[in-house]
Each structure stands twice: as C-alpha cells, then as structure tokens.
Automatic annotation (TrEMBL):
The lineage of its organism: Bacteria, Bacillati, Bacillota, Tissierellia, Tissierellales. SMART domains: AAA (SM00382). This is Iron complex transport system ATP-binding protein. GO terms for molecular function: ATP binding; ATP hydrolysis activity. Transmembrane segments: none annotated. The keyword Endoplasmic reticulum does not apply. The keyword Transcription regulation does not apply. Residues 5-241 form the ABC transporter domain. Pfam families: ABC_tran. It comes from the Bacteria. InterPro entries: AAA+_ATPase (IPR003593), ABC_transporter-like_ATP-bd (IPR003439), ABC_transporter-like_CS (IPR017871), P-loop_NTPase (IPR027417). Coiled coil: none annotated. It comes from Caloranaerobacter azorensis DSM 13643. Keywords: ATP-binding, Nucleotide-binding, Translocase, Transport.
C-alpha cells in the first residue's frame, strides 16, 4: 500500500528556536492517525508543514507520492483538506457560503456552482449537522457550531486526506463523539486518510489506528495506541503519573491521572 504522506527528516523554526527537529514518518493511505503531545510540542506546526502552509527549513514532504513543493495549491486542495482551529472569516458570509468555498478547487472561474457542488455541500453539512444553520451568518453561531462548519467545508473538498487541528476542542461530548464517528466512517467507508491533532488521550486511543506522540518538537513514539500510550511515555512527555485501567469493551486501556 502506498503512503498518503511521507515526511522525511524535516526541521522547522519560526525564529531561532527549532520547533520541529528531524521529523521522519510515513502515513499509510487509509490510516487514522492522531497526533498527541503537550502544548507547544509542535503538533500544529507539523500539520501546517504537511499542508504547505509552512515550508520546512530542511527535509522533504511527499503527499500522494508527489513532492509537496511541486503540487500547486489548487491541485493540493483536491487531494488534501484542512480544518484549522484558527480559521478566521472576516466577512458576513452565511454558513452555506462558507461550506461552498470548499468546492473552489473544482470550480471554473466566473462559473456559478453546479448541481453536483450543491449536492456535495448539502451532504457535508448533513454529515456535520450544520444544515440547519445554513442561512445564519458565520458570526452568529457558537464556537462549537463553527468548528463543525469548518469541518463541513473541508469535507466539501472531497479530499483523499483530511487534516484536522483540534477538531473537537470546543464541542460538547455528543458532538465530540459525532465528529469522531463521522471521521471514522469517512475513513472506513470512503478510505479517507485522517490525520488529526487531539488532546484527549482516551478518545485518540479509541479512534486511531496509530498514535504519533510528540515532545519538544520531536517524535517520542509512533505506532499502535497500546504501544505508544504506556505509563512511561506519558510520564516522560506530560510529566504526570497515570494508571491504565482495562475496560472489557475496549482493546486499549483507559488512562487516568493518579491524584496525589
Ligand atoms: N506563529 C508563530 N510564531 C512563533 N512561534 C510560534 C508560532 N506558532 C507556534 N509557535 C511556537 O512553536 C511551538 C510549537 O507550537 P505548536 O502550535 O506547533 O504546538 P502544539 O503542539 O500544536 O500546541 P497546542 O497543544 O498548545 O496547540 C511553541 O513553542 C509555540 O510557541
């Protein structure tokens, strides 16, 4: 099976301080990967390098077997979609208009949207439970609703690879599960490769095929959830002691901090 994303020995810095150091990893097509790690460990920066928003100082990135430097942005947008935490919208667009923007890579200049565009946008909005919000201004909805709209826009791009930065950070528990279930369904049924940053270790363990654990700009561990999320790795990276509790229904143990 080929790789959706290959990151070869990349380094990145915003200034003097190195934020990514020698990151080397291959993500198989069709995998569901969660990137975990403490605040400031470089998760978002890595995603931004993978989606060409930032350029590594050294190293190479391949997406869909092509050198990222050689893929035009519009072409890349048909392969990879990104839902960022900090997607700012300064104009009074409706929620529907925002999601329709996801069809941009497929639209011809000065042509209005096709029936197919409308169909795909509707499906993306139904999947993310945002269809009922379609006529509202993007500024009139809650943070959690907005997060779902940004994901709907990414889905409207019909990507082979979906990058998500903290997609559930502002969602209530029901919508957290709904979004992760949707990602899982897209992953299993439509073979979309999912690469997401998350803070919730237990949800990451439950939904992901593989976990990438980052620490101080480096890869601490990459592999199956049960092999990465060990007591020792968590202690090393987060500096807290945890207990692993075996639950009947789940392959991966539940991780709880030990209170002092
Ligand atoms: N635009 C920027 N300019 C300068 N430094 C930055 C910038 N963005 C991030 N950094 C720094 O780079 C480091 C990594 O940040 P990054 O956002 O990638 O971490 P993260 O693991 O995603 O953190 P979090 O869990 O808090 O979202 C941090 O030390 C941060 O302060």
């Amino acid at each position: 099976m080929s790789n959706a994303v290959e990151v070869r020995n990349i380094y990145f810095s915003y200034g003097y301080e190195e934020v990514l150091k020698n990151i080397d990893l291959s993500i198989q097509e069709g995998a569901f990967i969660s990137i975990l790690g403490p605040n400031g460990s470089g998760k978002t920066t890595l995603l931004k390098n993978i989606c060409k928003l930032l350029k590594p100082l050294k190293g190479e990135i391949f997406v869909d077997d092509k050198d990222l430097n050689k893929i035009a942005f519009k072409e890349l947008a048909k392969i990879m979609a990104v839902a960022h935490q900090d997607s700012n919208v300064n104009f009074e667009f409706t929620v529907y208009d925002i999601v329709m923007m996801g069809r941009y890579p497929y639209q011809k200049r000065f042509k209005s949207e096709s029936e197919n565009d409308v169909k795909i946008v509707k499906r993306a909005m139904e999947n993310t439970e945002t269809w009922a919000l379609r006529e509202k201004s993007i500024h009139e909805i809650s943070g959690g609703e907005r997060q779902r709209v940004i994901i709907a826009r990414a889905l409207a791009q019909e990507p082979k690879i979906l990058l998500l930065d903290e997609p559930i950070s502002q969602l209530d528990i029901k919508h957290q599960i709904n979004i992760l279930n949707l990602c899982k369904r897209l992953n299993r049924e439509e073979k979309i490769t999912i690469i997401t940053t998350l803070h919730d270790i237990n949800l990451a363990a439950r939904y992901s095929d593989y976990i990438l654990l980052m620490n101080k700009g480096e890869i601490k561990a990459f592999g199956l959830p049960e092999s990465v999320l060990t007591k020792e790795n968590i202690q090393d990276v987060y500096g807290i002691e945890v207990k692993l509790i075996k639950l009947d229904d789940y392959k991966v143990p539940y991780i709880v901090p030990v209170s002092s």
